[in-house]
Specification:
single chain; alpha+beta; four-stranded antiparallel sheet; two-stranded antiparallel ribbon; 4 helices
């Protein structure tokens, strides 16, 4: 864990920046959940957040809210910032991913605000 700067984590995943690559990918954030890692820019994180909201607001997600197979069925398709990749997720998983991405974006915005005023 000494090689990373933790941004945000929850019980489902983690978001961080690599310390060693500061010059190369200072604006890239590593997001890991389930067995997938995505290296994303802040703009891609915002796009992913939109994809998550679209999935939650879809008619299919409404059917999942009352599902008796909670967590077992991965019937929702979640688009990613990588247009060739779509995740099959459960309703519970998409809510955890939403928390991970929103928490990461919030922390990045907070850090940016503090940096703007020289507070650290």
């Amino acid at each position: 864990m000494n090689d990373i700067s933790l941004i945000y984590q929850n019980e489902f995943g983690i978001a961080f920046q690599w310390k060693q690559d500061k010059a190369k990918s200072a604006s890239k954030i590593q997001v890991i959940f389930r067995d997938t890692g995505l290296l994303l820019t802040p703009n891609e994180l915002h796009y992913f957040s939109k994809c998550i909201n679209d999935t939650i607001e879809s008619g299919d997600a409404n059917l999942c809210k009352d599902c008796k197979v909670k967590g077992e069925c991965r019937s929702l398709l979640l688009n990613s910032p990588v247009h060739q990749i779509t995740f099959a997720v459960s309703f519970a998983e998409v809510l955890k991913i939403k928390d991970l991405i929103k928490g990461t974006l919030f922390k990045l915005q907070l850090d940016s605000y503090f940096d703007e005023f020289g507070i650290n």
